[in-house]
Amino acid sequence: MLPGLDVEVARGTVTGLLGPSGCGKSTLMRAIVGVQIVDGGTVEVLGMPAGTPALRGGVGYVTQAPSVYADLTVRENLAYFARILDAGRDRVEAVIETVGLKANARRVVGQLSGGERARVSLATALINEPPVLVLDEPTVGLDPVLRRDLWDAFHRLADDGVTLLVSSHVMDEAERCDSLILMRDGAILAADTPAALLGRTGARDIEGAFLNLVSEAAR
Q1: Which residues make beta-bridge pairs with 191?
Q2: Prediction pTM value
Q3: 3-state secondary structure of 112
Q4: Rg, Å, the chain Cα set
């Protein structure tokens, strides 16, 4: 349950949705994608109600569980989704490069590690170049180098005008975001830039800022 939320995500930015497991991040993301029933209020994406059929090709969504076919190769999975989404064949190779799976392109997905399967799911969300990307903990289980490379890719997408909402429970990823939404127990503690949150709380890092905001809310 997420009572009384009021927040905006700016276009062409990487916005981090941070908070501990179970705080409501995934529920909020599903509401934005349009697959979560909303009892009251409104959720708008690109000026339209979330879940509107016209948005189906405009919102890329990556869940925590990989949503690809385990018995197909990486390239076969992406070719399949490219055909469904009417994306050009050149996009297959482009997204394989973006997520760092060129060396595994011919491997069956079921033989990949968990982190590699997660990257295949991310590639499927990128295949038709959607203007909005909603990514539920896309870097979980990845090594530091791959995490860095994916965050670099996220910012390149944002520079091209893509809006990204990226959830994480790892506070050190906060510094990679243009803006942050900090959540706890189904509520938004704060929504601002990392620099503004540090200035407001006097903390040295985002984890410290989060703890200060929790203490502030408890008073």
Answers
A1: 181
A2: 0.87
A3: coil
A4: 18
